[in-house]
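Section handout 9: paired folding examples.
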Amino acid sequence: MTPTVRLTRYLRSLGAGASLAALRFPVTVLLVLGLCGISLAEQAGRLDGYDEILRLVASLSAGAAISVAVALCFESYGAGRGLSLAASAGSAALIGGAIWWSQPLPVYAPALIIASLFAVPLAPFAGRGSGRDFWSFTLWTAVGVALAFLSVLVFLFGVVTLLEMIRYLFRADLLADLDAYLLTIALTLVGPLFALGRIPPADHAPIGFDGDDRLVRAVRPLFEWVMAPLVLATALVLHIYIGRIVLSGDLPRGEIGWIVATYALLVLCLRIAVDPFRGETAPLRLFARLWVPILFAPVALLAYALWLRISAEGLTVERYYLGLWGLAVMLGMAAQLVPQWRGDIRFLGCVPVLLLALSTFGPWGVAESVGRSQTDLIRSEFSGRLGKLPDGISSLPEADRRRLESRLFALESVAELSRIRPLLAPGVADAPEWSASPVSVASVRTVLGLDRGSAPDLTDTVLRRVLPQPLDLASYDRGFISRQVEEGGPPDSSTLGLRLEANRLAMTWNGTLDGLDLAAVVAELLAEPNPASVDRPAGLSDLVSHNGRHVRVIIEHLVVDGVSRLAQAATLTLLLRSAEWSDATPPPSQPDDRPPANR
């Protein structure tokens, strides 16, 4: 088969897939076209406003996913074309509009997009079909989508390679930006349309499970001899750790919530994956018998760890969704007690999707829950001081100040900072900063007076500069370029030896020991508006050593301790005068009072 014939068949299959997708999912195809157009316009620099572009892309993505799910649901029940089209368009408008108007976007957009995507394989089996039908439909949908994008990327790789070959061989700048546009079109248009065309039909009995199918026989060993033993071994390790906690009375270590959540996700995903052949081999039989019991103790540990954190520091977005996932796991375990739900993997997949969608609105939603929790903590801990602004906050100890700021950041993450307005004095509650949408922690810090008298930043400061070119030697005749020095490091007497002692630099050259005071230089660098900037050359500092020798110091890299504000490490370029180091004059026992810098 010639390459031309192969290309023709490939393009014909792409066209057939796109035509089938347009017939089955017209609303989705329109949204995909809009997403591709926005991506191309942004690629060409025709659009402004990063936040608006991101919000629009998220809205179109979620709308496209939910429109597919709704169309499949109506298709499975044999509904009319017009009704299916109206329902798809309405659901896309509802979810897309919710994301467009939601605040904050990083909280609501991921929840709605994930819920919409995972609703696609579940929608055709809402009230009909069986768990085996759902398993087969999900498998073939996932394989079709993966193959669609893989084939598009392989074809795109070939086209881009051909363009680069032409540019290199013929020294021709042939459509310099074409490869970028091709990549955008492939990922936002061709790939999605081809993937939509690979979704199995849902208007009749779905694909039945065939244990002898080559694809099924290919994936089964992965579950039998890799995933099942791995999950069982992980369960053993986790239960040993839980036993140690029970016996010793120790508190769970940090990040235990995410460890347990990931473990529970593996268990439930494996339970869904092995459903058609869970009794065929020893590892799968053991897992099918134990998957519920091995979740009891880890979920209890997750609940205990969350209770400790929430009671001490309140609810945050991360803790809310960890608790929501724990609730979904517990509901999946409880469903095994109901005869008609026991063994139905659709329930295990449906519960997390529903809870995720429910988390985006209502008094049980993430914003309301986090807002209430953090506001109650602020009211109980700081309401007396907040009512006496501006003097009530200025005398807060540093630990209390940081605790209040952590509460404010948690409220900002769900756009609920306005909840603390009723706790403030009337004059402060009417400040113009509250009119912003959404209110930021920076403006609230100003209103509360947290900027006044705040402690210095306790994080290390890292300064980077570019060595000036050309380097001005002036009257110096010896240069040591980009020498690294650390606090407490031993000087090397065989060449130029350097050691940091607080903000002093001990130097040894030609057997002569001397020192420089860098305190004024470090303080001047830290006083700059953006000391970490790397877009400017390093400054020259002409210093006089403790014994009167002249040294030009250029600081290229500097690490300053956040607590002591003393230099810990540096990369320096030093210029010396050889004649001044010919006499081995011993340094004084204490630094003299000579000014450290002559700039």
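Moving on to protein 2 of 2.
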Amino acid sequence: MQSTREKSSVEKAEVLVVGYPKSGNTWLARLVAELISCPVKGFWESTHDEMAIEGSNRQSDYVVFKGHQGYENVCQKIQHKHLIYIVRDVRDVVISGANYYKFPAKSENAKINQMIWMVDKGGRKYPASWCYIPWDQHVLQYLDNGVLFIKYEDLLINPEAECQKICSNIGIERSKKQIAAAIKNQSFATVKEKFKLSGDKRRENFLRRGKSGDWTEKLTTEQKNFLTNRFFHALSVLNYLEPTGTIANKKATTANVVQIKLTKAKMKNINSNESGYINLALNKPTAQSSVYQPKKYSYNPHGACNGKKNGGFSFHTLKQDCPWWQVDLQGTYQLSEIRVYNRINFEERARTLNILLSHDALNWKLLYSNDIDNLFGGINGNPLIVDVNLQVARYVRLQLQENEPLHLDEVEIYGIPQKVDASEPKCNMDEATLYANFYGQASRQPSPHIVQNAIMSMLSKLRMQDTELGKVRVGNRGDGGYVIPNDLAGIKGVVSIGIGREVSFDKHFADMGVKVFQYDHTVESPPIIHNNFLFNKIGWGSQDSNSFITLSKILENNGLDEGDLILKLDVENAEWDALLDVQPDLLKRFRIVTCELHYFDRLEDISVFSKVNRVISLLTANHKVVHIHPNNCCGTVLVAGVVLPKLIGFSFLRNDRALFDPSHKSIPSSLDYPNVQSKAEIVLTPFHTDIKKN
């Protein structure tokens, strides 16, 4: 991975030690700097008074920084070989964070619960503001991109081996004696004593114990079960649940091994089957085809995977053709077994039950079809048990083959994280698209938290980027003008869809000698006549007809088969349907796309969200957002806890035209003017800087 900026000869080679908060970042940053013999400058890209700072007198071509940023915030700014990730068992992260952060709770257990909330949900909430995304999302972003991983526990047990890995990765040679000296100088005892002698209470208190495994004594059984189930996938991938040890290195102490065996034994007794596999469905998101009298019975689809069985029904659909219930395991697993607990005394209603598996909640494969003579039970000792034989899936659906209501007591799904196998189909859809697929046919909305995560995941695709090209305003100072990247040389044509009574943007290019192909079925002609305007009184749509035309047909009719184009569109909500089935390669014909997008106030409606997410994925497949301007005509709305303008203007630039860096500039910019002069501009601060991918 190369930096997007050329380094001058006087710049130092930056080494970034990054990890989730309370994972040993400070210790490892200091140890790496000791190995290199260079200074620790502090927190990366921040003036924060950082605990890790030391060694300012060391002379070196290197400099070490500490950080907690997510992968997407650092991947383009630092060379891969100079990026080191430290990971620690999330259960110990919780204990360390609960002791360090000044949570408002008074009791230790309440503080632990607040820290569990942070690692589970993520958020900017003070005082644990750097836990802004869930622990597993932070960890897996780096793991999936091949960054050097150092496990905190391995560093405790065999620091020599881990230091050698670090030296090899950076490209430096150190003798065993030099490595031993660095380890001693940065040992927990040595550093704590140094702080104590210097009278630096803040730094002395920062170093609490420097141990692993505190969670086994400090967490309640309920807290252990929640964290193990919630982070089962990541913990398994990182070998924190392996029965032979949480640490890859075989020098684990007897105490470590005993602790691990006890933990595994506890796991097998709680929400696990005979093989020791955990119930993956427990407390996972669910959906169903319809809901029967929810106000009367006060239940929801989630009831079938809440771990409680009573012989009644935990969910209930209407009487309909082929009703279904499904669960999202929130990760891809090799499934070993599915257990279905039926409603007692109504067993015959589930006689035609099918079980289906899917990677994307869109394409389903039949796993099991029940024999109509098999009237299976539930808590009476006769549940349906299906051997899945380690087939791979993320989604599981239970569906009847007849016109009956579907109602069950509980569904349990057991398995292990997916092993790498090139023969298995992989899903390359983003989380927002998977969410839309999962809930797309459900009659009941998911929880507000799930909706918020999906919306934020989708909006992360619209993060504004800076380029070396700069920007220019084209058109009026107000409605009708657009801010676009200053990359206009060689443009062969402008496709302008939706012109109304304002064509200042079009006129700018027409005056440059560029042909402008205008489309609008709501006006008889453009407000001014220009030799380079080619007006068509026809609307833009998803299919060609006498009244509407597709984007591909526009290019075909006008012979626009060569050269770069600009697409400008403002069609009052029609953009979503018209763009829905456009192919990404067609949009690659446009160097610049500038548009006003609507419906941001309706994203909680799953049908609207599905459509908007599909189009935004299309627009960002080969382009990046380089400008954002909220239209101040209609104000803002609160959508699943996210404040959004109802209408937002965007400008996109094709990926091959520039180098891109995430922007932290203000919205609106100095080039922007209010769409409605009598109203104040809408200011966006977190929208383009704080929204992260799920």
